[in-house]
C-alpha cells in the first residue's frame, strides 16, 4: 500500500459508509460510483446542485465527492449544505478549474481536500480516508507541464462549446496557434 492510504480502510470508513457523488459528467459519475462501491461505500449520485442539495437534506452522507462546476450552479453550495446537516462529513471537491481562492473557500466550508481533474478513484479514496494531519505523498508520475497546459486548453475549448475563435479569445491566443495545438495528440 502507498503511504497516502490508510492501512485499515474499515477504520477510516467507520460504520456509516454513505457516499454522495455529485458530477454532471455521466460517464465519469458512473465509473466513480462503481469504483467507490467496490471500496466499501454505499453510493448515491446526483448530477446537479439542486438534486445534490435535496439528497443531502434528506439523508446527509458521511462522505461526499463534489464537482466544483455543475450545469446549474456551484458545487460549494452542496458542500455548505452537507456541512450544515452533518458536521462530521468528509467532503472532497473535484475541479478542472482550480484556483487558490476556490480551494480556500472549499476548505472553509468544510471540504477535507481539493483535487484537480483528472483524479482517479485511488486519489479520491485516499483523500476521503486520510486522517487529519496525515501528509499527502507526492505523485509517482505527475503530469508534465505540457500535459497540464493541454488539459487546460481542452477544458476551455469544451466550455466554449468547441468554438475555436471563442476559445482562442478567452485564452488570449491566436486562433491558428490554437488550431495547431488542438490538431496534435495529447502530450504525455
From TrEMBL:
It comes from the Bacteria. The keyword Nucleus does not apply. Keywords: DNA-binding, Phosphoprotein, Transcription, Transcription regulation, Two-component regulatory system. The modification 4-aspartylphosphate is found at residue 67. PROSITE patterns: RESPONSE_REGULATORY (PS50110). InterPro entries: ActR_PrrA_rreg, Bact_response_regulator, CheY-like_superfamily, Sig_transdc_resp-reg_receiver. Residues 18-132 form the Response regulatory domain. This is ActR/PrrA/RegA family redox response regulator transcription factor.
Amino acid at each position: 500500500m502507498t503511504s497516502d492510504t490508510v492501512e485499515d480502510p474499515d477504520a477510516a470508513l467507520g460504520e456509516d459508509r454513505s457516499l454522495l457523488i455529485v458530477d454532471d459528467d455521466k460517464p465519469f459519475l458512473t465509473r466513480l460510483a462503481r469504483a467507490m462501491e467496490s471500496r466499501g461505500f454505499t453510493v448515491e449520485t446526483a448530477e446537479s446542485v439542486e438534486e445534490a442539495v435535496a439528497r443531502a437534506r434528506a439523508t446527509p452522507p458521511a462522505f461526499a465527492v463534489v464537482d466544483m462546476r455543475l450545469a446549474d450552479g456551484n458545487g460549494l453550495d452542496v458542500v455548505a449544505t452537507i456541512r450544515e446537516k452533518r458536521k462530521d462529513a468528509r467532503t472532497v471537491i473535484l475541479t478542472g478549474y482550480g484556483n487558490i481562492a476556490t480551494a480556500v473557500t472549499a476548505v472553509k466550508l468544510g471540504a477535507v481536500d481539493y483535487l484537480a481533474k483528472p483524479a482517479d478513484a485511488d486519489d479520491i479514496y485516499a483523500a476521503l480516508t486520510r486522517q487529519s494531519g496525515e501528509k499527502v505523498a507526492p505523485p509517482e508520475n505527475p503530469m508534465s507541464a505540457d500535459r497540464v497546459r493541454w488539459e487546460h486548453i481542452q477544458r476551455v475549448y469544451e466550455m466554449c462549446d468547441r468554438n475555436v475563435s471563442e476559445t482562442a479569445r478567452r485564452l488570449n491566443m491566436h486562433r491558428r496557434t490554437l488550431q495547431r495545438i488542438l490538431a496534435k495528440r495529447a502530450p504525455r
